[in-house]
Amino acid sequence: MKGQSRWQEFKASIAPSMKEFKFTLSKIKKSPLSVVGVAIIVFFVGLAVLAPVIAPPIPGYDPFMMPHTKPYGPYPQLPSPDHLFGTTPGQYDIFYGCVWGTLTAFRIGVLVVACSLVIGITIGGLSGYYGGIVDELMMRFTDIIFAFPGLLLAIALVLALPSNITIINVGPIKLSMGLTSLDKVLISFILIGWPSYARVLRGEVMRVKNETYVEAAKAAGSSDLRIMLKHIFPNTVYPIIIMSSLDIGGIVLSAAALGFLGIGSPAGYSDWGRLISLSRDYIGSNPHDLLAYWNIFVIPGLFIFFFVLGWNLLGDAFRDILDPTLRRR
Amino acid sequence: MEEPKSLLKINDLILKFYTYEGVVEALDEVRLELRDGETLGLVGETGCGKSVTGLSTLVLVPPPGRIEGGKIIFKKKDKRYDLLAQREEFLRSLRGKDVSMIFQDPRSALNPVYTVRDQIVEVLMRHKRVPLCKKVLLRNDLSRYERYLYTRLLTNPRSFTLRILSKIPLANRFRRRINKVARDEAINMLKAMRIPDPERVVEMYPHELSGGMAQRTVIAMALACSPTLLIADEPTTNLDVTVQLQILNLIRELKKEFGSSILYITHDMGVVAELCDRVAVMYAGSVVETADVVEVFKNPLHPYTRGLLGSIPRVGVPFKSIEGTVPSLINPPKGCRFNDRCPYAMYICSQVKPKMMEVKKEHFVECFLYSKGPS
Amino acid sequence: MNSLIEIRNLKTYYPILGGVLKRKVAEVRAVDGVNLSIERGECFGLVGESGCGKTTLGKTVLRLLKPTSGSIYFDVPNDVLERIEALEKKGGKSEELRKLKKEYDLVGFRGHRLKKIRRRMQIVYQDPTTSLDPRMLVKDIVGEPLIAQKLAKGSDVGKKVLEIMDRVGLTERHLYRYPHEFSGGQRQRIAVARALVIDPDFVVLDEPTSAVDVSVRAQLLNLFEDLQREYNLTYLFISHDLSVVECISDRVAVMYVGKIVELAETTQLYTKPMHPYTVALLSSVPIPDPTVRRDNVVLSGDVPSPVNPPAGCRFHPRCSIAMDICRQKEPALVDMGNGHLVACHALTR
Q: What is the pLDDT of residues C265-284, one digit of tens each?
């Protein structure tokens, strides 16, 4: 160890992780569907990052609100050089809506999944590790949430959440927060989403808890917290990663469904579901030519489709790569 | 050189595994010969390739393994077949009937959702359908319909109409006859395995059996069709030492009763001394020494065999081990694979792989120490 | 010279839960009343077949399992032990007995005291594949006891880890790798390094050579012997491999379904075994010499389950010299001379 610079030590310490990482990459390359999934997600990330460049927002307005353009006619317009994807009834630019909708989708998906993960992992981990009455209570609570049909519960929660919540109200200190309707949707999805993670993690923790190396750590005198963070967590987290990447797509789909029903983002917000909901009246409105206004639902629909597909493929890819039984083939 | 008495002859078998880390050269020109009625012990340590040799004999090596060369010549009813050149149909008719295998962990070799009866009957139905039909037809309480069906089955055991018929509820009641006969056969097999109270055991599930009983069930499945060759892959390693003694005695007795030859794969030299007639020692993918069991223990020629026998713990003697570790088979060393650990290694050992030579009568070694004349 | 470990009437039962309300339906009597004392510096062998409770005993001594009843004394002076024994004989519920037990009996240790005593006793497991965390680097695995016990910090940890790795025959290159990159023998060495890095007094070796090859076994046994001499360790060597135990242990105890049936000095036990189970066990070990044909004592039946052990002497259903009293009364361990203890009615008439 003497005479070795810090950089060399660092390189040596991450060398085995790098080897594992390279192995993982090679496995990804072998499966064509995973490559497609990665490509799709990379495309969407690029779109989200470059949104201000591709569809410049009107200065002075919230970039997420789609611009109205004159003439204000009720009919949607087909794609034209002015509006690349055409406009919705109400003259919202679909191109703008789809591009900024990517940002919204990421925001919804990543935020909801991240918060669900944090809550789910904490509750599931404690529940699985300690068992007993703690486990019973937590699991009965998740049972309650599972008993309701997801989307209905989400709608109910969205409608029930107040628009203004007061966090601290002690004497002179008063801290309150306004919740936009989109925030309400996010919170309700989080509240419905965490039980699945808790359940899965609890199962995994119960399996790993009895492994010999955990017992060896106990024999060395490690504290419970140390065991949970250093031994149990790294060995149980992989199924959760797979679930979460599949869920990002699922959450966006559900949010789009709510958006279509009119719950969620306010009118004029760039959200794919919203776009389709704006077009509700004009889908198939012309009985002689059902695809007369195809751009108003096909294009946002395709965005949703590919986004969810990309995350699904990525999740499958993760599962194929990270599943320890398949890994070493 | 054709040995007229050899039941199984493996010539220059080459097996490679294509993995991410590289090509594992698991078997490198393995030469093995098993004679009629003998128990050949295949000894070696972890990773030497003894288990895959057993699997190769049944041509059951899973991918990414690929057999790349050699011949496996098996004698069936006085005709010799190269198993590697046969079609899957033929091999399937061999497995379970002429060549059987028993594995190390009896609990995982048995399907946990089927009873003992189901598992033994499965083997019987696959291979012994005609004799079972004959037994059914001997009964005199068959209806005319059943008699007709079973005579049909006798002439054409794999009759398509009968297979369809056996899937239709109510019409497949004829199956109970053959099921009963098969069940009686299964109980007979268990009796032959010296299992007490076979009527009760035959209806048990694998998790209700102890290790010894589970292994006896596996042996019953393997011997149900009286195979000429039994391959045993470390069947007693996972068992307690007193149960191991029971099973070894059982295998010895059954060999006489059923007339099988046994290829016994193990790493325990004590078991080899107890059970085997001849011994083949494997190291890193090749057979390095083959001889009669007394010869091998009294007069080991290959340095690895000497090291192996020397490292058996003995009271009062300091522990002796073999220097170094088994080489990785992904890029195996040139020449003799033991040369980097061999106390007698010569220059040629690192360049050329030695060939199997008959140094004394019936005592074969692969080592340059015993080659006569300039190499 | 006091004994390092004193085990008095130790019992470890596992409850079997059943029924709708998950009540305790039966118990697995893994360790059912064991008395043992291990001297400082000796290698004490514990043999038996699967299910006899030897692994449970080893883990209970280390408090990795919760004992149901009994006492374990670790490095307690002889006079204190005698006092405790005297008080117990008087049928004690005395205050003094309670205080002494609270201070010395390992069974009652919790929390911080337990953590401190763990520093002095460690374990090497049977299967090195499962006993090492597959997602941790070797240097973290070996360094963990130091960090958990707060014995070293920062670069000190690295130094100590390197020291012990060197001592077990591994090099610096091996530090930054994952366990699956090593062979079985090397992994077992890593497990040994982890056990010894905090310099314990007592090490439980739970079948440490069962999962490795014969040639590697000898290397490991040499290592154990050298380390015992160098670090002045006391071993509890648990194994079902009788030939290995014969070579490395000073004294050996034979367990059967949760109880010790025979205990003696190694040479005594192997040359003059007394208990019928020991005799059967020793004769069933295959000898690596084809010219020796032995009269094997083949035991009928299987090892009884520890849930419902036979009444009286547990061995009586399989014993060739069973008498009436064997079916009714459990035999106690009796000293037959020279510290050779046997629990058998037929022999201790």
A: 999 998 889 898 998 888 88
pLDDT at C170 over 70: yes
B121 vs C292, more confident: B121
Euclidean distance between CA atoms C134 and C132, whole angstroms = 6
**Residues of chain B falling short of pLDDT 70:** 1-4, 372-375
Q: Return residues 12-71 of C near A (CB < 8 Å).
A: 62, 64
Contact C218 B308 (CB under 8 A): no
Q: Which residues pair with C13 in a beta bridge?
A: C29
Share of chain C above pLDDT 90, in %: 20
Closest partner CB to B270 (pick from C184, C244, C286): C286
- Residues C122, C12 share a domain: yes
- Cβ contact A26–B20 (<8 Å): yes
Do B276 and B54 touch, CB atoms closer than 8 A? no
Residues in C closer than 8 angstroms to A207, CB to CB, are: none
For residues C75 and C137, membership in a common domain is answered with yes
Residue finishing a domain among C221, C251, C281: C251
Residues of C in contact with B306 (CB under 8 A): none
C246 touches chain B (CB under 8 A): yes
How confident is the model at residue A57, as a pLDDT? Answer: 76
B1: its two tokens: 């050189």
Is A287 near chain C, with CB under 8 Å?
A: no
B53 residue type, one letter = T
Q: How confident is the model at residue A1 (pLDDT cuts 50, 70, 90)?
A: very low
In whole angstroms, give the CA distance from residue B53 to residue C332. 51
B307 touches chain C (CB under 8 A): yes
Task: State whether residue A211 sits within 8 Å of chain C by CB.
Answer: yes
Q: How much is the pLDDT for B279?
A: 93
Asked if residue C306 and residue C174 are part of one domain, the reply reads no
B62 interfaces chain A, CB cutoff of 8 Å:
no
Q: Determine the residue of chain A that is closest to B63 in CA distance.
A: A329
Q: Does C91 share its domain with C109?
A: yes
Tell whether A133 is within 8 A of chain C (Cβ).
Answer: no
Q: Which residues of chain B have a CB within 8 Å of the CB of A23?
A: 20
Q: Within a domain: residue C175?
A: yes
Strand order in the sheet with C69-74: C23-39, C3-18, C69-74
Q: Are residues C97 and C171 in the same domain?
A: yes
Residue A111's DSSP bridge partners are none
Task: For A281-318, give one letter per residue: b (16+ CB within 10 A) or e.
Answer: ebbeeeeeeeebbebbbebbeebbeebbebbbbbbbbb
Domain that holds residue C209: 3-52+67-251
Cβ atoms of C269 and C278 within 8 Å: the answer is: yes
C93 and C25, same structural domain? yes
* Whether A239 contacts A200, CB under 8 Å: yes
Confidence of residue A329 (pLDDT cuts 50, 70, 90): very low
| ipTM of this complex | 0.82
Coil, strand or helix at A253: helix
Query: Chain B contacts of C217, Cβ < 8 Å?
Result: 311, 313, 321
Cβ of residue C172 closer than 8 Å to a chain A Cβ: yes
B160 touches chain A (CB under 8 A): no
Contact C30, C21 (CB under 8 A): no
All structural domains of chain A: 31-145+186-327 (1.10.3720.10)
Give pLDDT tens digits for B176-196: 888 888 999 899 888 888 888
Of the residues C233, C251, C269, which one is the last residue of a structural domain?
Answer: C251
Q: Chains A and B: how many Cβ contacts under 8 Å?
A: 7
For residue C270, being part of any structural domain is answered with yes
Residue C106: which CATH number? 3.40.50.300
List the Cα angle B55/B58/B62 in 5-degree steps. 50
Mutate to test the interface with B, among C49, C178, C214 (most CBs of B within 10 A): C214
Q: Is the pLDDT of residue A319 over 80?
A: no
